[in-house]
Amino acid sequence: MIYKIFHIIYFILIFNSVELFAEIFYVNQKNYPNIQYVIDNAYNGDTVIISEGIYKQGKIIIKKNLTIIGKGAAIIDGKDSEGSIFYVESAKVRISGLTFRNVTRTAIQDNAAIRLANSDGSVIENNKIINGFFGIYLARCDDFIIQSNKIYGNSKTESSSGNGIHLFRCTTAVIKDNYIENQRDGIYLEFVSKAIISHNKSLFNLRYGLHFMFSDGCDYENNKFEKNGAGVAVMYSKNVNMRYNYFYNNWGSSAYGLLLKDIRDGEVIFNKFYNNTVGVYMEGSNRLVFSNNDFNKNGWALKIMGNCMDNYFKRNNFISNTFDVATNSKQSYSFFDNNYWSGYTGYDLNKDGIGDVPYAPVSLFSVISSNNPESLILLHSFFIEILEIAEKVFPSLTPETLKDKKPQMKKFND
Prior knowledge:
11% helix; 14-stranded parallel β-sheet; 13-stranded parallel β-sheet; 5 helices; Pectate Lyase C-like; single chain; 414 residues; mainly beta
């Protein structure tokens, strides 16, 4: 019995030896200003504390599972260096409390303030990145957290700028409470699975506030996307769920609150689409559920292409949009039921809260203007109103099958 207890204690000590004997190393302007030197002399499990000051260094390579913490205004300036400022090649690295600025821009390499490769279980938190090319870049990393970082880009053109948070071939990621502005894409995911993106603010980016490509099984919720060049794009993915997000003020000739292209099997619920050129644009997207969303004061609340099938829209509010729904097909394979439409003028004789006359949300003028944008000059004209009345009586261009058979008389509350 004593022999077994001895062996148990022995193995516990062996497996926890790194934590038991971990040390703290300090970087400071006076005695140890070289960050790479201090990191090279640390061991797995050690902590490196970088004291207040400006360190004009870059291409710092981390090959050990270290905790690196900035104290006070610890600023790492990569202006005169080549490559990324921090390059992490080890698992279980934590980087916190640092300010990074001036990442070298190049068309050859995706330099970042913090770049991680094959780094599982790492945590990047509470950092500030100013004038980065890419902010935080992860390739082939699993089970990591990126939280509470502030990323301020200085992007002028798409070709000369990078993304705020960039993930490539990663799994099981948590990206939360980050603030990102003025990058190419705020958050970019390519070949990523099981990611949770929550409570981020992505504003004023040249292209997309959030960009999904070939990324399955991901959730994003409680994020705010505002004044991005093209809104948010989810492409070539499946099982993506979008909840409680804000899509505001994304205006432009090719701007959308949310662009869905070739995705399937997901849900879009409790989101707010306010003041966008197009609230949601859908192409080749199937088996999606849209429920309890607010579409308010958009140019087009929905643009649904004819190759979209088996999508369900229920309990949504469509309020004061110029056009509620537009499509390029006379046939509709999506279904609308129990939505509120501010443009509905029907009646409710039995007072059950449901309109007695179905509502056709596709107007004749939305069809005309989609094919001939210059015709928008006739919006709200008497001539168009006459055509709309005639189309409702004898439908010829609008899809007869796209109707809400149970339009709500009152809007849904949050």
